[in-house]
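Example 3.2
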Amino acid sequence: MRLLPLRFSPLRFARPLSVLAAVLAALVPIPASAQEPVVPRTREQVSLTFAPVVKRASPAVVNIYTKRVVQQRVSPLFNDPFFRQFFGPQFEQQFGGGQRERIENSLGSGVIVRANGVVLTNNHVVANADEIRVVMSDRREFEATIVGKDERTDLAVLRMKLTNETLPALELADSDAIEVGDLVLAIGNPFGVGQTVTSGIVSALARTNLGLADVQSFIQTDAAINPGNSGGALITSDGRLIGINTAIFSQSGGSIGIGFAIPANLARNVLSSILTEGKVVRPWIGASGATLDKDLAKTLGIPRPGGIVVQRIVPGSPVARAGLAVGDVILSMNGKDVFDQEEFRFLQASIPLGQTASLVVNRAGEQKTISVRLEAAPETPARQKTTLSGRQPFAGSTVANLNPALADELKVEYTQDVVLILQVAAGTVSARIGFQPGDRIIALNDVDIKSVDDLTKVVAKPSDVWAITISRNGQVLKTTIGD
């Protein structure tokens, strides 16, 4: 499990049901006819149990064991050029270049979501793994491979290597249907002790700004979650899968009753996209903005802070066609309040491609409803990825035309007619000058650079002096290279 500062950790759960049973019993109204206490005569009359739900759900929750090989220096002295020169190449060769292989093992949990062995888990459970084993609750063990993974949501999809087996699977439910106070169960493999079930309630919804992922709006629960629960199931009291356990907030590394799960609606879209496209294709509407704070809300006459002030609209995008305008404040999407940019990104990501989203916006003090069809971010203009060479300042840089799809992949703001530096090779002219990935090339020798073609034409002309203008993190930088 992952630990969050103060600390958020990959999840594991545990807690007695007796107190819960007592609380529920106290909430049940006593019929008027039942004035005298009655001695319970059957087990069902004195017990509250989730056993039937657990028996149905737990076979689909698996343990995931991973291995990876890492290179480790035998001694830091091998980093010293004098040491290597003194003892000679034969000494270094004898010790494998001063490095040795070490095996790192890790564990986590996962949920079988297809009977053919498709498993949903956290990306951080399987990241950089060289070998993945999936162990079921009945102790059957299978090798697995990664079908796809998504760092931005911390989700990964695995496929178990089966022969003719048909496996138990949990179906992803509608996570928008849950409410604060609902009973939930967490199933996983905390600390590697084996499959464990714990109970709690939904403590909060739409938790953002946790630093766990780029697309985030977590379900918070007080069910006990500990390291090893990452990727496990969060289910309702009737056995519906409504979340993938991801992290806990902890000061010691163990559960203190603050755990977080990725909502099933987001997980469903990631799963579907990976299985059909081989990668995650996110819905795109073509607008960006800033969170509405209290000062701006007061200025605009909006009664409370929260929402997105639209600052930029891509021409020809879904929202441009739908009539959204710069200055509009997006208050909700499909009936869900938009509190900040993180919640806005999550709401977009949890709607399937091709569906229509209903936006409620505040425009000059009046509320309007706008319908927007969500599409995949377009690959227009073509990226035209190019690695430059020759006697010119960008030699060693790999550049591309920025388009909405690339901007989404790199998590950068999309603007039109921009050439972006993707990579800078070490030891090249570009590296010595100081160019960095993410730099936007604005002009070269007084020629505006709006495409890779523009750039290649300018660098193809020999020059003794190169006047360069780039943009880095929103700041325009100018320099001259040469005489």
